[in-house]
Amino acid sequence: MAFNGTWKIDRNENYEKFMEVMGVNMMKRKLGAHDNLKITIQQDGNKFTVKESSNFRTLEVEFTLGVNFDYSLADGTEVHGNWTLEGDKLVATFTRKDNGKLLKSYREIVGDELVQTYIYEGVESKRIFKR
């Protein structure tokens, strides 16, 4: 339940390069790096509700650990996959619908921060959030 709460973006590491490799155009990359993202996570057993609110969109996603679902990334990229819990890490394994390539994401609590790591085509990026 350590993930529960509201988290606001504090800083990014290599996020623009990650978006570039994902195929996000330059204008969207510049905007995305300054999206003021806020995530609210609520865990109830194996079920999660995640509310994402940014300068560009607000959405709510509900998922159950280990159960596949469809999701649309902020740039409109459609993916299919699931989240699992591995130790203290939430691990996402998604496949892009447009090209079949794998996108991995990890959420973990490090100190008093939520660190979200993305890996795509060998490029790793982090978004760090604070309560």
Automatic annotation (TrEMBL):
TM stretches of this protein: none
Organism from which the protein derives: Neopipo cinnamomea
PANTHER family tied to this protein: FATTY ACID BINDING PROTEIN
Keyword Transport found: yes
Pfam family, one: Lipocalin
GO molecular function: lipid binding
Family matches, as PROSITE patterns: FABP
Protein's UniProt name: FABPI protein
Domain Cytosolic fatty-acid binding proteins: 5-22
Protein family according to the UniProt entry: Belongs to the calycin superfamily. Fatty-acid binding protein (FABP) family.
